[in-house]
C-alpha cells in the first residue's frame, strides 16, 4: 500500500529541488515546462490529486498546446497521485509508457558514518556543471540551461565534486536540503572509475553532509533499469517508496 501523504511530500520537495522555468496549474495538475532543458521532469504534466479527473480530454488538449509552444511533446508523469480515470483514458487512447523510475529513501537518524573525513561542497556552479556534462558526455550547449536550473534552487544545496589529477572530474552529486529531507540529484560517476568504490564514497559524502545539516531522511530518483545505480543505492540502505512512468500520446 502506497503512503499517499508521503508521496505528496516527496513530490513537492522534488519539484523544489529541480525547479522548472514555467510552472502552471490546471486544477491540481501541475504543468512544468522549460525551454532550455529537455529533462522529462522539467517538461511534464504532474497530476497531484487522484480525485481530480474532470474534463480529461479538454485539459489534455490545453496542455498539449502549451507543450507545443515550447516545442515539447505532451508528456504526463504518472505517479500514485495520478487519477485512475486519467490512467484509463491514456490506456484506452494507446499512450506510450516509458522510463519507469523509482523514488527511494533512507533513514539518516540512526545511520553510522564512522570516522571519515568530511568533504566540503564547492561554490563554483560553472565548474560543477562542466563536470556534470563531461561525466555524462552531454552536449556542452546544455551548460547554460543546467546552470540556470541549479542557480534557481531555493533550498540550501551542496555541489560535490571528486577530481583526479590526471583524469579530471570523476564523480559529481548535488544535494538539496529541504527541512528534514535531503534530495540527491545529478549523481554520476565517470565510467573510467566505476567499480572502484568511487560511487559509494560520493554517496557517503552526500549523506554525511545532509545529516550534519539536520536531514532525517535522504531521497533520490533513479531509473529502474539502471542496475548498477540500483545496487549502489540498495547497498546504502535505500528502499523504494513509489515508482512513476512517463506517458506520451501514441502515434
TrEMBL record:
It holds the Pfam family Rv0428c_C. Keywords: Acyltransferase, Transferase. It comes from the Bacteria. Residues 120-251 form the N-acetyltransferase domain. PROSITE patterns: GNAT. Gene3D superfamilies: 3.40.630.30. This is GNAT family N-acetyltransferase. It comes from Ensifer adhaerens.
Amino acid at each position: 500500500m502506497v503512503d499517499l501523504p508521503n508521496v505528496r511530500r516527496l513530490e513537492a520537495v522534488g519539484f523544489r529541488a529541480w525547479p522548472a522555468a514555467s510552472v502552471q496549474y490546471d486544477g491540481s495538475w501541475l504543468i512544468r515546462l522549460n525551454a532550455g532543458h529537455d529533462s522529462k521532469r522539467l517538461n511534464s504534466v504532474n497530476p497531484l490529486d487522484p480525485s481530480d479527473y474532470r474534463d480529461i480530454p479538454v485539459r489534455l488538449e490545453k496542455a498539449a498546446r502549451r507543450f507545443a509552444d515550447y516545442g515539447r511533446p505532451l508528456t504526463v508523469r504518472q505517479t500514485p497521485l495520478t487519477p485512475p480515470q486519467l490512467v484509463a483514458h491514456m490506456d484506452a487512447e494507446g499512450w506510450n509508457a516509458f522510463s519507469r523510475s523509482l523514488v527511494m529513501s533512507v533513514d539518516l537518524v540512526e545511520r553510522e558514518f564512522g570516522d571519515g573525513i568530511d568533504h566540503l561542497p564547492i561554490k563554483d556552479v560553472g565548474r560543477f556543471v562542466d563536470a556534470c556534462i563531461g561525466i555524462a558526455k552531454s552536449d556542452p550547449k546544455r551548460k547554460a540551461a543546467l546552470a540556470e536550473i541549479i542557480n534557481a534552487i531555493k533550498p540550501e544545496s551542496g555541489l560535490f565534486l571528486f577530481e583526479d589529477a590526471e583524469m579530471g572530474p570523476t564523480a559529481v552529486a548535488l544535494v538539496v536540503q529541504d527541512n528534514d529531507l535531503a534530495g540527491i540529484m545529478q549523481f554520476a560517476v565517470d565510467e573510467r572509475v566505476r567499480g572502484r568504490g568511487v560511487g559509494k564514497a560520493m554517496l557517503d559524502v552526500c549523506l554525511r553532509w545532509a545529516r550534519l545539516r539536520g536531514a532525517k531522511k535522504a531521497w533520490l530518483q533513479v531509473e529502474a533499469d539502471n542496475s548498477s545505480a540500483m545496487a549502489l543505492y540498495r547497498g546504502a540502505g535505500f528502499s523504494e517508496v513509489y515508482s512513476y512512468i512517463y506517458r506520451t500520446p501514441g502515434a
